[in-house]
Request: fold
Amino acid sequence: MPRQIWEKKEVYPFRALREGVGMNRIGILTSGGDAPGMNACIRAVVRVALSQGLEVWGIRHGYAGLIRGEMGPMDRGSVANIIHQGGTILGTARSPEFTTREGRALAIQIIHKAGIDGLVLIGGDGTFRGGTLLKEESGVDIVGVPGTIDNDVYGTDYSIGFDTAINTALEAIDRIRDTALSHDRLFFVEVMGHHTGFIALESGIAGGAEELIIPEVPENIDKLCRQLDASFRRGKRSAIVVVAEVEQPGNAFRIAQEVRDKAGFESKVCILGHIQRGGSPTAWDRILASKLGAAAVEALENGKGGHMLGEINGKIAYTPLKDTWEKKKELDSDLKELVKLLSG
Ligand code: ATP
Reply:
């Protein structure tokens, strides 16, 4: 008799709950900006949890959907063929209502009504701020998994989605370099980063940017003009300056204008914007997401609620949820130095 290659679907409600384990039904949501690899993480959480005899409920549209009670059971099939997809099959949202105590009280009612005794949050520092309060106010076990292209979450070397985002930015920088070289032009390329320079620094180094403007280094337009002038005098005929968007998209336009006013250099500006968010995740992001998703389920089972699962120096790291947003993740100072050495 040939073996079936598909697996029998789990039957809900799940009856074979594990004896002696306080955790029976876990919920999972994605929150904040979407990031490539979130789906791979959802898949890992669902499949590892089911294999451990836990039920998994998917909550749609982050905290907003939680407050509205948008949720339902997930089985192995519900996460089939999503590992390569960007975005999040659960949907995501930003929920002002959840930032209020009343909003969270509604969410807590829903959690209890649904019988959810553990929650996996995939998102960024804002999501974990909310998660910290939710844990304090509900007593439910909560674990976080860093999923944001910004990579600005303390407690992990990389967050899910960052690698894909820098590769997307890099591809764009490479393309712009062709034009910059062909037309002898100065380009300002603006990348995302939410008040941090992680995307700018790594895509800038990989793309051979002549200069970087990041929020971690005080802005000095005069110095930038002098450096550009020096490199043009040395014979360069084109240059790329990678700029972090910081507050709002459009920071690069302001800088280009100031450089024009001060030094007379004409330039072109390219704002990469949301194309950095989507797309099929890189192998790195898929693997990281799978590891952290599995670790999140294990953490819930082992009574390690209240932590975010990250990876530091290749090892799974537990960081108290509160630290993930209270402490500041620093840019790699060696990389910052490297930019100075390599720009010519
Ligand atoms: P990204 O880095 O991709 O923007 P994020 O998780 O930081 O992701 P936010 O929009 O900052 O995205 O936060 C997601 C949600 O978390 C918010 O919409 C809000 O509902 C909740 N949240 C954020 N900050 C707080 C807070 N101080 N208190 C309670 N909830 C919060």
